[in-house]
Amino acid sequence: MNIISTKDYQEMSRKACELVAETINTIEKPILGLATGSTPEGLYQCLINKHKEEQLSFRHVTTFNLDEYVGLGSENPNSYRYFMNGKLFQHIDIRKENTYVPNGSAENLEEECVSYEELIREHGGMDLQILGIGLNGHIGFNEPGTPFTSRTHIVELDESTRQANARFFDSLEEVPTHAITTGIGTIMESKKILLLISGENKADTVTRLVNGDISEDFPASILKEHPNVTIIADEAALSKL
Ligand code: PGA
Questions:
Q1: Three-class SS of residue 145?
Q2: Count of domains in the chain?
Q3: How many angstroms is it from 222 CA to the middle of ligand 1?
Q4: CATH number for position 96
């Protein structure tokens, strides 16, 4: 894993933005894996700015999001589809039909998982997968204990994850208990992975990622076996290394 250290969140976002823009500009039909959460928001804002000010075009880009809450439809402001529309897709020239997010309100969730995985396969997998990391080492919503071979599946969210995400909801009770997530096996097939980490509260997580063993107890640890992972982390996140 190649680690790039940045002064702060803004610089992390800018550097990530350069790498994503390079992928968009150099691959004929790029397939991007996208993440939600607080961490990639600065990256998305930077991509919007590049679109508006430097004519970066997304007409040829296809995106697959990592995950979605079960039970939240696209009109729910806490759904990840809503997040992606508002934070990125509405502000760029991407074709809406080329933006995929798992459907958390599908009638048959098992079928939704199978068809989402199939769709990713049909597109040949991700050229570049953007990841954040949970305090417990989760990637996507693959919580500790998830098999490294997993494919798109339904997960029961860890209590720690629900608590960490409660800040976006009116109360902890409103945070869904389940989600659809692409699997660790799916993520590991990405040609290139870009992991963004910011803030002092992630310092222990980064230390465990870098110094700890590869174990299903800490899902992100498998990234050490991927041939092309770049971590961009700010000084606060790297402060305990
Ligand atoms: P965050 O979430 O970016 O909001 O910290 C990361 C994650 O849980 O994967």
A1: coil
A2: 1
A3: 18
A4: 3.40.50.1360
| 206 CA to centre of ligand 1 in angstroms | 13
Place of tokens 């939600």: 36
Give the chain's residues under pLDDT 50: none
- If you measure from the C-alpha of residue 78 to the centroid of ligand 1, how many angstroms do you get, rounded to a whole number? 14
Which of 200, 193, 197 is CA-nearest to residue 210? 197
Helix (H) or strand (E) holding 181: strand 178-181
Q: Best substitution site from 36, 43, 68, 133 to test ligand 1's pocket, by max atoms within 8 Å of Cβ? A: 133
Closest CA to 114 of 182, 179, 189: 182
Distance CA 58, CA 99 (A): 11
Q: Which domain holds residue 62?
A: 2-133+149-180+227-234
Structural domain contains residue 185:
no
214 belongs to a structural domain: no
What's the rounded Cα separation, in Å, for the pair 231 and 2?
Answer: 6
Q: What is the pLDDT of residues 119-166, one digit of tens each?
A: 999 999 999 999 999 999 999 999 999 999 999 999 999 999 999 999
Residues within 6 Å of ligand 1 by CB? 37-39, 132-134, 138
Count Cβ atoms below 10 Å from residue 18 Cβ, excluding itself.
11
Asked if residue 198 is part of any domain, the answer here is no
